[in-house]
């Protein structure tokens, strides 16, 4: 009866009221930072070169909004190409077929070695190689010549190369194909992070390799794949500005520079570009947080609750509880 | 690679249902230059509980994995319920089966692993329903009812929506057993199902296995639980160095081992 530990009879020790350790260094740091921030704000407000009113007036004009939409379209399509092709390349890299492995390796080697800016401009000029791009039987003319038929052509359909490789398509291919090389490495690391026992258990249940990859291995690999893919997406958002040099005109940075140079207000428009990219990346960060939370399912006893709390605090950075780094 | 290097076996037309559930003949398996299985012969009748014992590294797990073709054997034959595992025999020649055919054979053979190997991104219920839905494309409602019944049978009716990380080792292993049973196998393989468990959790898993044995399931169990072998086992096979050293009634073998190696091993584990 009197063994109750919460018994009020038992005297509770007095709460500790010690003098906390002082941190004079912190106050010095606060003072220094305060002065620097004040100087920066002063610069922003008083320096004429910023021309804030011009910037705000021009930042949301129709051509720039079209540029924003173009950049987002470029981001989405190139990342889609990158992810799909990257998964394919990763599977090829891990397959037992030495030819597939070699092709995937060579692809990755090429597209990681060439800078994206160079790739983008190169793709923009591919129209110089062929005037038309056609689909049909390969080497049809040569085969025709072999059988004595002059000008034998077996072509199904075709486009004018300059039509197909408009700036947008060239930029999308350059960015997407290059992204695939990086995604392949990320996906490969993710697949390899999944325990062998998972594949064995699935095999023992009668699943085929394709089913195992789709339903068992890739969903688990996602925990390792999603965080770096989020970073890749944000990097890609920034790299869409490279295609301004293809040139792609329906793109944010191209439009910003156009307005800047036409109005001789280069600097305010560069600030506008900075703000636009900040805004768009912040949206991506939020998306990344929710994706990571989704794929952290079942990891760790309190993993989900913890990830939720931590994610809120840091705005998405590394929210997946216990997800191994790559 | 495409043909097992064995002479065609004369006249063993084992028929489904009639013959033994598992029949292994001169099974050889090498990893590189190391021969792990050196000619294992074994027969397990339908409904029999066969316990495999042996020192570490003797090839018990390897043999179990050969039975559902997780490992390719180098020589010999294995039949499960009359079907040759992994190969098709045509005109005295062995042809390697396609991936789909191997997968189909594995559906009838349940396997339970030492480290559970539950799918961590799926709840207990989803772990159990996954294979019937994906592999057999059964109706969702039917699969669900069967899975719920199985989880209740292994005593986890209240843990169905838990993820594996939210379950104890013993509970995870019981889900793993339910997962294997959901494919309605003819044969269950257990590879040291209780070795990774805390001592107080061993009993709950063994109880589920005893229940299965009483129900007439054919089981091959690699285990160090001598008590289980004695109580539930119909036969005991002692493997050492990749060969069957002793094979008999568990109670007799344990009480009165014939071979020195069996004696030495039992002296250590008893
Ligand atoms: N994939 C592999 N590659 C190479 N050697 C292997 C492989 N798998 C098993 N072995 C070897 O085969 C031998 C038998 O292994 P196995 O796992 O079958 O033993 P076991 O009887 O199950 O032992 P334990 O009781 O420790 O589980 C061991 O020497 C092991 O090192
Ligand atoms: Mg083993």
TrEMBL record, chain A:
Keywords on record: Amino-acid transport, Cell membrane, Membrane, Transmembrane, Transmembrane helix, Transport
Q: Which residues cross the membrane?
A: 27-45, 66-92, 104-123, 242-260, 266-291
**Known InterPro entries for this protein?**
AA_ABC_transptr_permease_3TM, ArtM/GltK/GlnP/TcyL/YhdX-like, MetI-like, MetI-like_sf
Q: Where in the cell is it found?
A: Cell membrane
Where does this chain mainly localize?
Answer: membrane
Q: Which Pfam families does its entry note?
A: BPD_transp_1
Membrane topology qualifier: Multi-pass membrane protein
SUPFAM superfamilies, alphabetized? MetI-like
Residue ranges annotated for the ABC transmembrane type-1 domain, each copy included:
68-288
Q: Which domain of life is it from?
A: Bacteria
UniProt record similarity statement:
Belongs to the binding-protein-dependent transport system permease family.
Instruction: List the PANTHER family hit by this protein, alphabetically.
Output: L-CYSTINE TRANSPORT SYSTEM PERMEASE PROTEIN TCYL, MEMBRANE COMPONENT OF AMINO ACID ABC TRANSPORTER
What's the name of the protein? ABC transporter permease
Species in which this protein is naturally found = Micromonospora gifhornensis
Automatic annotation (TrEMBL), chain B:
Per the record, the coiled-coil ranges are none
PROSITE patterns named in the record: ABC_TRANSPORTER_1, ABC_TRANSPORTER_2
Molecular function, one GO term: ATP binding
Listed SMART domains? AAA (SM00382)
| Source species, domain of life | Bacteria
What InterPro entries does the record point to? AAA+_ATPase, ABC_ATPase_HisP-typ, ABC_transporter-like_ATP-bd, ABC_transporter-like_CS, MetN_ABC_transporter-like, P-loop_NTPase
Q: Keywords of this protein's UniProt record, alphabetized?
A: ATP-binding, Nucleotide-binding, Transport
Residue span(s) of domain ABC transporter: 22-266
Keyword presence, ATP-binding: yes
- One Pfam family matching this protein: ABC_tran
Stated family = Belongs to the ABC transporter superfamily.
Name of this chain's protein: ATP-binding protein
Which organism's genome codes for this protein?
Answer: Micromonospora gifhornensis
């Amino acid at each position: 009866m009197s063994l109750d530990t919460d018994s009020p009879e038992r005297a509770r020790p007095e709460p500790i009221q010690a003098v906390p350790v002082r941190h004079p260094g912190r106050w010095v740091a606060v003072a220094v930072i305060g002065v620097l921030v004040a100087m920066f704000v002063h610069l922003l407000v008083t320096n004429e070169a910023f021309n804030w009113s011009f910037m705000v007036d021009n930042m949301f004009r129709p051509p720039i909004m079209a540029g924003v939409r173009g950049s987002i379209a470029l981001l989405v399509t190139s990342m889609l190409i990158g992810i799909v092709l990257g998964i394919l390349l990763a599977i090829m890299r891990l397959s037992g077929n030495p030819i597939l492995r070699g092709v995937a390796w060579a692809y990755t080697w090429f597209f990681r070695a060439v800078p994206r800016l160079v790739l983008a401009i190169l793709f923009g000029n591919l129209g110089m190689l062929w005037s038309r791009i056609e689909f049909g039987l390969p080497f049809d003319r040569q085969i025709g010549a072999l059988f004595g038929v002059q000008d034998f052509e077996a072509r199904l359909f075709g486009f004018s190369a300059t039509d197909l490789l408009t700036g947008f398509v060239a930029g999308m291919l350059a960015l997407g194909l290059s992204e695939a090389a990086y995604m392949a490495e990320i996906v490969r690391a993710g697949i390899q992070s999944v325990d062998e026992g998972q594949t064995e258990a699935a095999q023992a249940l009668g699943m085929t390799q394709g089913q195992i990859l789709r339903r068992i291995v890739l969903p688990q690999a996602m925990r390792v794949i999603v965080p770096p893919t989020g970073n890749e997406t944000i990097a890609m958002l920034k790299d869409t500005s490279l295609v301004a040099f293809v040139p792609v005109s329906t793109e944010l940075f191209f439009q910003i520079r156009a307005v800047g140079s036409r109005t001789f207000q280069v600097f305010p428009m560069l600030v506008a570009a900075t703000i636009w990219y900040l805004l768009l990346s912040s949206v991506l960060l939020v998306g990344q947080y929710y994706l990571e939370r989704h794929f952290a399912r079942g990891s760790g006893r309190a993993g989900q609750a913890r990830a939720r709390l931590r994610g809120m605090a840091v705005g998405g950075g590394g929210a997946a509880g216990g997800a191994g780094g790559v | 690679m495409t043909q097992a290097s064995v002479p065609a076996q004369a006249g063993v037309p084992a028929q489904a249902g009639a013959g033994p559930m598992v029949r292994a003949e001169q099974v050889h398996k090498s990893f590189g230059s190391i021969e792990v299985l050196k000619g294992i012969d074994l027969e397990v009748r339908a409904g029999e509980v066969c316990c495999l014992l042996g020192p570490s590294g003797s090839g018990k797990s390897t043999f179990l994995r050969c039975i559902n073709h997780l490992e390719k054997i180098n020589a010999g034959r294995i039949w499960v319920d009359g079907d040759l595992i992994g190969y098709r025999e045509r005109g005295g020649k062995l042809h390697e089966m396609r991936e789909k055919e191997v997968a189909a054979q594995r559906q009838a053979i349940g396997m339970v692993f030492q480290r559970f190997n539950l799918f961590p991104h799926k709840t207990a219920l989803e772990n159990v329903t996954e294979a019937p839905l994906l592999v057999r494309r059964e109706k969702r409602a039917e699969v669900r009812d069967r899975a719920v019944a199985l989880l209740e049978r292994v005593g986890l009716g209240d843990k169905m929506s838990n993820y594996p990380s939210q379950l104890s080792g013993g509970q995870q292993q019981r889900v793993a057993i339910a997962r294997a049973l959901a494919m309605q196998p003819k044969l269950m393989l257990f590879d040291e199902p209780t070795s990774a468990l805390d001592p107080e959790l061993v009993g709950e898993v063994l109880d589920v296995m005893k229940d299965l044995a009483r129900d007439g399931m054919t089981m091959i169990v690699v285990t160090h639980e001598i008590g289980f072998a004695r109580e539930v086992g119909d036969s005991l096979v002692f493997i050492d160095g990749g060969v069957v050293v002793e094979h008999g009634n568990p109670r007799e073998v344990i009480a009165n081992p014939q071979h020195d190696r069996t004696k030495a091993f039992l002296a250590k584990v008893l």
